[in-house]
Amino acid sequence: MECKEGLENCLRDAGCPEKTIAACMAESGSAAKLRILEEYRKKLLQTLHADEKRLRCLDYLLYCLRIEGEKDATRRV
Prior knowledge:
Blueprint: H1 4-13, H2 18-26, H3 30-76
Helix pairs in contact: 1-2, 2-3
């Protein structure tokens, strides 16, 4: 990117923490910036996978509770 302000704004829009933004802005070469951003992307992906696992667990719990609720409703009839 030609404009430093443009790069900094893009990094902020991407949700990069200030530490990552500062590290990118301090680098002059594209290769170093790529390395920093690929590492940040890797961390985001790990967080996403962890969140997906928690969602699957929560979905299973909700499923079990719904089934249990349906059984309870059937027993009352």
